[in-house]
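chain below, 754 aa
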Amino acid sequence: MTVLLVAEKPSAARNMAKALGGTMAGTFQGTHYEIVALRGHLYEYVEPHEQVAPHLSDKYKSWDLANLPWNPADLNWKRKPSAQSGVAEILQTLAGKARTASEVVVATDVDPSGEGGLLFAEPMLELGITPTKLTRMYFTDEAEASIQNAFLNRREIVGGLENFDEYKKALARSKFDWLTQQFTRVATVTAAQRAVLRQGRLKSAMLLLVGVQLKAHNEYVKKPFFENRFRDEHGVMYTNPDEPNFPNQESVAQTYAPSAVVVDVRGDKRVAPPRLLDLAALSSRLSAKGVKADQVLAIYQRMYEDQVVSYPRTEDKTITTEQFQDLLPLVDQIAALVDVDPALLTQRLPRRTHVKDEGAHGANRPGPNVPGSLDAIGQKYGDTGTLIYEELARSFLAMFAGDYVYESQQGHLEDWPTFIGSATVPKALGWKQVFADDTTDEPDDTETPNKDGLGTHAEPFVFEGKNKRPEHPTMKWLMKQLEKRDVGTGATRTSTYAEVTREPSDKNKWPLMTETRGKVTLTNYGDMGYRLLPGTRIGDLSLTERIYSEMRAVAAGNRSVEQVIAVVADWVTEDIQTMQANAATMRAELGLTEIQQKEKHEGTWAAQGGRLVSFNREWSGHRFTDQECQTLLDGHEITFTAISDKKKTAGAADPTFTARGSLAELNYKGKPWVGFKPEFSSDLPPDAWCQHTFTETEKETLLTGGTVSATDFVSQKGKPFSTTVRFGNEGGQRKIIPDFGATPRRTQRKGRRA
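prediction:
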């Protein structure tokens, strides 16, 4: 009787083994166990055209808006193994052990999105494994005590995987997001600019937020104003919220006289250390130092694999008591490494704001393996690794330092009591000596932190101010906006941001944003994508909130996955109309010309068993008639007069030629498509060869097997030459065959004297 634990990743499996006895297979309190590890998502959905019946394949492959929206009922939701290395071996191991185990345990991460349930269910369902008994381990972290407790208190999943709440919740999100790729097709086609404009739930939110902020920043118009204020000998300013302001200084009536200051309130206030960094906050801080998000992701992953830092893709904002106790003995060692005075770390008990027994991996923090020096980190992980460790370590150490304490003072003017002033007097810097927090907003011009506080006497003056310019969007600003709206996790925001700001390449031909030392700007493609979004469903910033609400309803059994994803079709239909209108405005504003899409004809291809196909309606200057389209679909050849671009370029008096062909499966750069295939192995001689136009007599001669000589042939390099040619078979085709060894002579018909 063996209980099989299925962990989410190798590091989690190692921690479980350590907690249960030190090996991947053993006995813990009388129960024999084995542990296997997944490696993230082992399966992924196949392409849209592979999700449907053969006769619908071309419809789902096509980007023609007439073929949208997709009908979820058409989809079989087929998956294929992930392309990452080692997947086949993982699946083989899982299948072999899960089929013989008396109990299979879902031991993947427990998180609000249910992703751990989906990671487990995908391979189990695709491999066709139905466990004799299926249970779930619920653990708050990977500490030994948590794992042991979760193992001893496994909960049975009644009704199989299809009724597993975590799986259903994540499946709804997974299918919904897969269907949103339709919006990329809508944006790309409506923009009509020969560029793929990627629109997804998170990408669209980023584009919209950055676009709106950039517009506000760039269109800012300075509006100065002037008003009466007072300033005391300590520099504290006193303002009256009802005091009128004027567009110029001359209009301000200076009717006030100096006045004594009356202190109304004086008291100490405390500020606890900021919360621990998540991956988005960490990457935002480093972006201002010129470190790209994809660098942070790559280096952090390497450091995590060496246990120098904690698990990267966590959603947690706090750590558990167990995690706190694990790192407590290392605090002084970590402090020495990043040059923090241990004497500042006076709070060695768990803070309720930072330590809570909830979550799974815990917030991002240093790992159990503390390097010997920053130089050692730099040598192994580069400068980015050093910056990552310093930021994480100082953020973590800040919670061991004292609170920031200041005295808050408020007062008014004795003679002009409506004028109010305030000041903050630092008394104990506390954690601010450990970690430079950049999450607080800048104080306005009436909040004056100083060591002296309020003064005793204030003088009137005319204050010159201006409307505040909206800040230029930065990664830090964008991450805060997304977090405020609960769009994505810190790790997801960071990975998506890294994707949309990546440098142009063969794999990233149409980047959406650029970043320079943290400042974010839209590329031309990003600007087009942003201008398509106003009023759309995919651009609605409340979309994520709705999806999470629907996911919770699915987990509770109040909604089905089918009900959740059914709305996408209507949204696509709405967004086609909205984006078409937005696209017209976009092209007008940006001075772009609409690039016409090639006209398509759609129908059932009899030669392919009634398969629904779409093909270009024009070929070489000829537009197929309705009857010609039907003949092609019926599997027959057609003959028509086409126009030769080569002849037109050469200035031929008659650039037309007779074309013959049929519908066929074609291939361009590895991508299959359906189109007209000409039959060049014609039974008739061509009208011309090497810029020599054959006369009707010459064509008759060639057709009957004779030879034609001429002195006005022109090579591809533009050089004239003379030769004799015949029309015959070569390489499986009937074509013009020159005889360069022959002496050019008059046209000679076979069997006759010239």
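Confidence is low (pLDDT under 50) at residues 440-447, 749-754. Residues 561-590 form the longest helix (30 residues).
thats it, cya
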